[in-house]
Structures are given as structure tokens and as C-alpha cells.
Amino acid sequence: MAVGGVSNTTNTSQMANSRSTIADNFDTFLSILTTQLKNQNPLDPMDTNQFTQQLVQFTGVEQQLKTNDFLEALMLSGQNTAKSDAVSYIGKEVTSSGRTGELTDNNAVFWAYSAEANAANATITIKDAKGQIVYNTTGPLQSGPGTFRWDGRGSDGSMKPNGVYSIEIKGKDGNGKDVKISTASIGIVTAVDFTGDVPVLTVGSRRVSITDVTDVRIPDVTAQPKPEEEEPGGDEPAEEDAAA
Fold first, then answer.
1. Is 117's pLDDT higher than 70?
2. Which residues contact 188 (CB under 8 A, 6 or more apart)?
3. What is the pLDDT of residues 40-51, one digit of tens each?
4. Residue range 32-36: average pLDDT?
5. For 173, which of 18, 33, 57, 109 is 20 to 30 Å away at the CA?
């Protein structure tokens, strides 16, 4: 399992530049104040109130430097915690918003769905990367969350090639009214990329922003794999295992 490059160069660089600017201003202020004190007229010294105000400004700049140091340490601590949390996703099964799933030699495709009401008649359509329909089925769906497994066998009975497929589920209730049914992608996380502002998970060949993840779980080791292609003259093909 490979973990993508870890980088917080951008945020650290911005904080360092900000601190450098304040430090330069601080040194400039101190230099001007010292020069002013050295060259003041002994017969007409600096006004006490004015001197006090400058000392207050001096202290304020120093306090700002210390505050920035504290914020930088706090920011780096938060980044490290977020990265540790993201790495813990590796090897876990995640559900993310979307319609796509990946068919591989060892795994069938799983999608999650959620129906707002009972659908007396629902149509499930699966398309390949080119948008061509490879499988569809109809049947009732109960309201609430559920999962759909596709073993890769098309409506024509042939096994479809490995790749990314998309699902679409439409349903109507007993009165013929449309039922809203949302879908989500399910897959195993194999890597995490930290090069962007938000960690990105690698799920098969897909890249999923961690902010799009809606559920994380330990993979079901009992999940059935994709069936192998039937050899000519072999046993009768097994029944399709694609249940909602």
C-alpha cells in the first residue's frame, strides 16, 4: 500500500513569509526608535506621552510575533492530526458521493443507494465508460438505504471487461409518482495524496476527496467475488447474483 507524497510546504511557506515581514517591521521600528532617542535635543527631549505610545507599539509588535509563532505551531499540529486520520482510511471500505464503481478480476461492484419512499417499480441501469448500457434490471425497492451488487455479467449474459462503470436508479411509487433515489460509490482505499489542500483518497482507479466520504467501515471479507467467465461446453451458467 503506497501513501502519496506528504507536503505542507505552501502553508508553512506562507506563515514563514508573514513572520519574516513582521520581524522586518519590528527591527525597523526598533532601529528608528533607538536613533530617535540618540539624536533627540537634550534641551527639548521627546514628549513623555509620545515615548510611552511608541513603547506600547513596540510591545504590540513583539506580542504579534509571539502570537504568530503559536498559531504556526497550532496549525502544524492540526495538519499532522488530519494526515494521521486520513492515513487510517487505507484498507478501509468507504462510501462516497457519486455513481461510479470499478469492476476488477477479484471484485464485483457495489453501490449504495437511498430511496426516499417505497418504489413499487424501480429500474437499475449500469453503463460502461463510453455511456453504453451493459446491464439493467427492474423490481421493487424499499425506502431507506441499501446496497446493490453487480457481478460484471451484462444483460446479454456475457462477462464485461474490467473498468469503471456507472449506475442510475429510477423509481416510481404505487401511484406512478417519481421516487427520489440517490446513489453512492463504494470501494477500498489503497492510498492517500496530501499534495492538495484536502487529502485525496485513491479508491481503485478513482480519486475521491476525503470531504466526499460519507461512510467508512471495515471491508466485508465474506463479500462474493466476481464470477469467472464460463468456458465453452462447461457447466450451466450460475444464476445472476445482483440483488438490491
1. yes
2. 91, 92, 93, 94, 203, 204, 219
3. 767 666 666 666
4. 73
5. 109
pLDDT tens digits, 161-215: 998 899 999 999 989 999 999 999 888 888 888 887 788 888 877 888 888 888 8
What is the mean pLDDT of the segment spanning 112-139? 93
Q: CA–CA separation, 179 vs 169, rounded Å?
A: 10
Burial class (CB in 10 A: 0-12, 13-18, 19+), 83: middle
DSSP string of 170-200?
Answer: EEE-TTS-EE-EEEEEEEEEEEEE-SSSS-E
Closest to 215 in 3D by CA, of 119, 115, 111: 111
Nearest-angstrom CA–CA distance, 85 and 94: 14
Q: Give the amino acid at 143.
A: S
Query: Which of the following CATH numbers is that of domain 93-217: 1.20.1060.10, 2.60.40.4070, 1.10.3720.10, 3.40.50.300?
Result: 2.60.40.4070
> Residue 185: which of 159, 161, 204 has the closest Cα?
204
What is the structure's pLDDT at 39?
75
- Three-state SS for 65? helix
CB distance 90 to 192 below 8 Å: yes
Res 160: pLDDT: 93
